[in-house]
Amino acid sequence: xxxxxxxxxxxxxxxxxxxxxxxxxxxxxxxxxxxxxxxxxxxxxxxxxxxxxxxxxxxxxxxxxxxxxxxxxxxxxxxxxxxxxxxxxxxxxxxxxxxxxxxxxxxxxxxxxxxxxxxxxxxxxxxxxxxxxxxxxxxxxxxxxxxxxxxxxxxxxxxxxxxxxxxxxxxxxxxxxxxxxxxxxxxxxxxxxxxxxxxxxxxxxxxxxxxxxxxxxxxxxxxxxxxxxxxxxxxxxxxxxxxxxxxxxxxxxxxxxxxxxxxxxxxxxxxxxxxxxxxxxxxxxxxxxxxxxxxxxxxxxxxxxxxxxxxxxxxxxxxxxxxxxxxxxxxxxxxxxxxxxxxxxxxxxxxxxxxxxxxxxxxxxxxxxxxxxxxxxxxxxxxxxxxxxxxxxxxxxxxxxxxxxxxxxxxxxxxxxxxx
Length: 420
Known about the structure:
By secondary structure, this protein is α/β, with parallel strands linked by helices. It is built from 14 helices and 17 strands.
């Protein structure tokens, strides 16, 4: 017999029927899920393109894209068709077998990255996430036989133990110490510090082209190219973490291509699957031959359904000209925000559709809440930075609607109390 005091199928007390569906979801979350994310205030239930709808029927313009994951927005027909066709054909094969979709994706990634060039001789390793990709790169660095690695202060490479050891944000590492040993940190963008840190004991240097979780901070001009020269001269691997910047986010397939370099290792995830969990490691030359049978693996790595989604993403980005679109729309948004001349806006940084609106006071978390109240999803990776990482299909009209709304969003903030 069902419990007469609860609403059928939900477990929600009957006397709560009149409360917001978002509030009900938050209460259920707090009872059923661990608290590692805190309790989300909104339950999203559907989405189309760059617009999502919550449990109360309210629509939002999604300017965060699942933190740079939903490269083609929500329910894109190409991904829906590719995933549906693949799951109806063969959903999983394990790594005991090969699969045509997975092979096609590996070859396509080598093609768009330039790693298919015989002079580069690249190879691909698949995994499920950005953290897993960086874990694999960490292990590859260990296989060089050198004991040390260099990463950047403020960098973020994931929350698993190896990736966390590379993350230059002490607050995220401290509760889980001791970390895997051998990682030293240098100030991001400081070439002299990098030069002083890299010697013949260093296996690898891990760098993001733009610090995403660190506040959308781009590398200074020439920094990646200099890091490439330095690591090559001293026999260390250059690992470029493109988990957030890859797959067209900055207006090129990969941000390292803006710098005109070829890293030894590139880590990917987020936008690659367009909403499905897949990551990858691209490696060049000798780095591509470090891992040997039995040294690394993951049950779901290279899952054909996720690989089908990734192929659909790559094909659509190319066919729809989304690299050029991301580059142009990013400049349009940045100039639009800066032209507002709002006293709280110090400037806009980033590249393509990975942008940080820098504020003159530490009110970004409150601004993100206010933006959501106005129908826009953004987040605050730093106290004074609003991050935009929208789907690459975002239209100029949609972007303009946010720019027009931004002054009202910022005007509503209590900057004095937030700054104190």
